[in-house]
Structure formats: C-alpha cells, structure tokens
Amino acid sequence: MGDVKVSAIIPLYNKAKYIDRAIRSVLTQRGAEVEVIVVDDGSTDGSGSLVMAMQDPRIRYIRQDNAGVSAARNRGIGESSAAFVSFLDADDEWKQGYLETILRLIQAFPEAGLYATAYEIKPVGGKAYLPRYRAVPASPWEGVLPDYFDTALGVPAVWTSAVTVRKEILNDVGMFPLGEKRSEDLDLWARVALKYPMVFSHFVGAVYYQDVDIRASHISNAVTERVVVKTLKDHLSHCQGKAKSIYIEEYINAKVLDSVAECVCAGDGRQARRLLASCPTKFSWKRSFCWYILSYFPASLISTLFAARNLFWK
To answer: Could you give the residue ranges of the DSSP H alpha helices within the chain?
Structure first.
C-alpha cells in the first residue's frame, strides 16, 4: 500500500516545548506518503514560529483564532488532501512503525471505520508503562474489537493520538463536536462505533505524555452532561424494541460517573450524589461507591488526590 496517503493532524496550542518532537515523529514514519497539518489554535508562546522554521514541504501550517481543540481538528480534516486522517496531540508522539501498522490494518480490514494501536503512558517524572485494556484479546492479537463499548468501560483502547480514520467516514458520522471541553473525542469514536467496525492492534504505536497539571481548581463548577452521553441516549431512544448492547447503557453510566468526579473535585458533593442516584451501574459499582464516599470530603482534600487520574478509567 505504498501509494496510500495519510494526513496527520496536529492541533497546537502553546506547546512550544513539544511540537518539534511530535512533528518529527510523523515525518520519520515509513510506508505511506504523509502530510502534516498543524493547526495553531491561537498559540501565544511562539509555537507557530517553531513550526514555520521547519523547512519540510510535507508540513502545512495553519493559524486560526483560539476556538478549541475540536475546531482545530475539524479545520485540519477540512484542509486535508488524503483519504485517511490520523490524529496526534502536540505533546505526544508516534513510535516508529505506527503508520506501517495502520496501513497493514487498513489492508486486512477495509470495511472498518477506525484503526487504532496500543500506546504507552509516560507520567511526568515516572516510568513509562503499558495500560491493560478491557475486553480485548491478549497480545499480539489485532482485529475487530468484539464490542467497542465493552472495551471503553476500561482504559481507552481507542485513544486520539493513536487513531486513523477514513475521511469519508468522518463525512458520514460528523466531525468533532464544537464547544465541548470534555470527551469530545469519545463522542466521535462512539458515533463511528455505532455504524462501523473498530479495529485495534496491540502494536505500541504512540506515547502519551501524561500531564500532571490537572487539579481540582481546573474543574468548572458548572458541570454539564457530556456530549457523548447525549449522543448515546439519543441512539437508544431510537432503537427501542431492537437488539442493543447492555454495554452502551453501562458506558453512559460510566460517563455520568466522570461528571460525578468533576462535581466532587469542584466541591459540589450534593450534585455528585444526585447524579449517582440517576445511574445504577452493574460494572462500575466500586467506582461509584468510591465517588459517593469522596463526595463528603472537602474539595481541598480531593485536590491532593486528583493526580491519581486513573480513577476516571476504572
């Protein structure tokens, strides 16, 4: 498949320390013609100058006023010239062999809607490790995920910086939702999963540099329903009487629990408990109980625990 072209879309906002690493991890890939589309979403730290200084015809730099990561990714999709679109955040990187693996998956599973690889997580100041995925056959398996929503109840196997999608699929299911600051990527993957097979490979194709600069003070007191919850509730309302996976309902509950976590971290324990009462859950009852207990703790104490972000993934 040497004639396949892939557009790698990198949304950029104040990542001057990392953008060179991200771009070079794309340019060194083998197996496909690649273009790198960097959409600068109003950076103020000189990130754009660093990109423009990289003299490579495969790099396209686009600057826009700050409009959010979804708007930046959608702009990149619209500007792309390839049949396949890949995503990479500006502070992450691809490992050598990522695109070769994706192209092999495309050839083996041409009917799929999305192609993803495993990734490693590198905490700040810590040792890199591989996450363990739920409901995915053991390594070195690769193929169509048995049930995306079952898998998504655990650590995400479909993660934005290790995902490639056929552009025509995005034109079919729609783009990233605008104005969303939580789960905007999960909403798009859910819409793809409702219509198309999702393919996964245990090949470790990317590195997620985990940002520890996430604290309770960054959580808004105005916690709203995640867009993916609205999308899936609407789907279920239109398939009454038809076969539906129990895992979709459980996934909705899991995303409500994410909102519960935000309420707890914002100091709104009462709202957290109201949300908990609305989502009886079979698979995540331990996590539900954990957040119920924490809802009685002061936000100042929760903030010291918030670095344990895996609470969102269990």
So the answer is: 19-27, 47-52, 69-79, 98-108, 148-151, 167-173, 184-193, 227-237, 246-265, 269-277, 285-294, 299-305
